[in-house]
Amino acid sequence: MSGETARRFGVLWLQAGACGGCSMAFLDHGRRGVFADLEAFGIDLLWHPSLSEATGEEVVEILEGIVDGRIPLDALVVEGTVLTAPNGTGRFQMLAGTGASLLDWIRRLAPKARHTIAVGSCAAFGGIPAASPDPGEGVGLQYDGIDGGGALGAGHRGSGGLPVVNVAGCAPHPGWIVETLIALAAGDLAATDLDSLGRPKFFADHLAHHGCSRNEFYEFKASAEVASDRGCMMEHLGCKATQAVGDCNQRAWNGSGSCTDGGYACIACTSPEFERARGFLATPKIAGIPVGLPLDMPKAWFMALAALSKSATPKRVRLNAVKDHVVVPPGRAKRWGAEGGDG
User: How far apart are CA 262 and CA 230, in angstroms?
Assistant: First the structure.
């Protein structure tokens, strides 16, 4: 086995303009714990500002060792919005004890890394701190909202050949973070495995709508009217799951559940500029028609389908949609193959 193959995969994690939620998600990965999984796949966390013991001069030594080539860096992970204020200097957020901003350190470290990973939509696209009025002049690593650019520029590529890998979400599923690290460590993530916004396709080729426990209500357009109702939240409560990438409802969060399972409408947090969107928990409408319709579906088709679906809604589904518990259970078939009564 060559030295390069045997060497462990070194990861440096920096927090820019962050709430810490992505680190909290990272810690929730796996039944064995995230550190056991990293160890199993040969991944070393060189430093994390919240999880590592090293502080002060020890951290500066690590950063300088990476910059001057003494310490190999396989993946630079950035959590949080890159704050470029005032006037592009980045001095809005300084890294204590170094005399340099986080922006400066990111620009020094990224060229030394084989891969750069934006963990969370803040690091990917700007996210919450970049919302108006944006005093910190926040950007993502390779995007400023929907536009290419960001802190590293649209043309940035790591020595491994990839653009910034955007593990978007607010916060991302812990599996998305760790599986991305594992795929990179194994050499199994290529440019063709990323979507047009740099998000890994293993989660970005899905919609949050897929696997939603409320899909029967969606199919019949039986809508919730208040947050505690069991019905579909698209029509009235601002749910964007039919427009948002992510396999959120196909894998459990924190052992079980998801946003929509918990009665909270999807806000499309894996998307650029989700923080600027109209309709948090209320669906914007024009002439009574929701503004945001499912991806790839013409409006006329949706309206025709919705009218047909509502005309065929079973009484059970219609009544349960506006309750916080099941008030009409499914009918019981009299025999196999027979139709069940639905009332």
Answer: 10
Asked whether residue 340 carries a pLDDT value surpassing 60, the answer given is: no
Q: How buried is residue 136: exposed, middle or buried, by Cβ count under 10 Å (0-12/13-18/19+)?
A: buried
Q: How far apart are CA 65 and CA 62, in angstroms?
A: 5
Angle between helix 102-109 and 57-67 (nearest 10): 40
Q: At residue 1, does pLDDT exceed 50?
A: no
Q: Which pair of tokens denotes residue 143? A: 């995007």
Q: Are 129 and 122 in contact (CB under 8 A)?
A: yes
| DSSP states of 217-273 | HHHTT-B-SSTT--SBSTTTS---TTT-BS-TTTS-STTS--TTTTT-----TTSTT
Joined tokens for residue 145: 């909202």
Q: What's the CA gap between 122 and 125, in Å, rounded?
A: 6
3-state secondary structure 13-80: EEECECCCHHHHHHHCCCCCCHHHHHHHCCEEEEECCCCCCCCCHHHHHHHHHHHCCCCCEEEEEEEC
Q: Which amino acid is at 310?
A: K
Across 191-203, average pLDDT: 98
Structure tokens at 267: 């806000």
Identify whether 111 is preceded by a cis peptide bond (ω within 30 of 0). no
Beta strands in 282-321 (DSSP E): 285-286, 289-290
Q: Which pLDDT value is given to residue 74?
A: 98
pTM of the entire predicted model: 0.89
Q: Which whole-number Å values give the CA distances from 180 to 26, 71, 118, in the listed order?
A: 12, 22, 11
pLDDT in tens, 82-98: 999 999 999 999 999 89
Q: Is the peptide bond before 171 cis (omega within 30 degrees of 0)?
A: yes
